[in-house]
User: What shape does this take?
Amino acid sequence: MTRYKTQIWIALLWCWACITVAAEAQPIGAFYGQYIGHATSDAEIERDLSVTIGPSASRGFFIAWTTVSHKPKGMARKEYQIKFLPSARPNIYSSAMQTNVFGGQISLDPLKGDPYVWARVKDKTLTVHSLTITTEGGYQMQIYNRTLNEQGLLLEYRRLQSGEPLRQITAQLVRVAN
Assistant: This one.
């Protein structure tokens, strides 16, 4: 009888290990690569876009993107890079934009005017949310949906101010490197 109990415990332990490994498996690697594209925003501003998504040294990943806006008064270039770490919830990642006193990577504080940023992967879409609390106590939300398709990534960007749409941009980005 003891031998059977041991076999049952071994089988249960094996199943638990398989479930744990499956729960930790992240589909983020499918998004790794470099992408470029072009978009015209709802304000008729031409934009050149580039995005790089790749693994970071600390079990997570990073997203780096550049936007070059071609405005009547000249060009404007904005560059961003954010590291993300796995959270305790599957396919949800916390941003690691600041180093705490112990050397750990943490999110910024939205009550100090900093953006609170997180990411999630659902099906073929990597979504990055950025929440900023305005000086009046409202909020501004930026949402970047990057959906994998045959050409690369379909970018759908929205910026909301207290729930009201401010800007929307859609662009097809082509994968240029893995």
User: Anything to note?
Assistant: Residues 45 and 71 are 6 Å apart (CA to CA). Residues 26-177 form a domain with the Lipocalin fold (CATH 2.40.128.120).
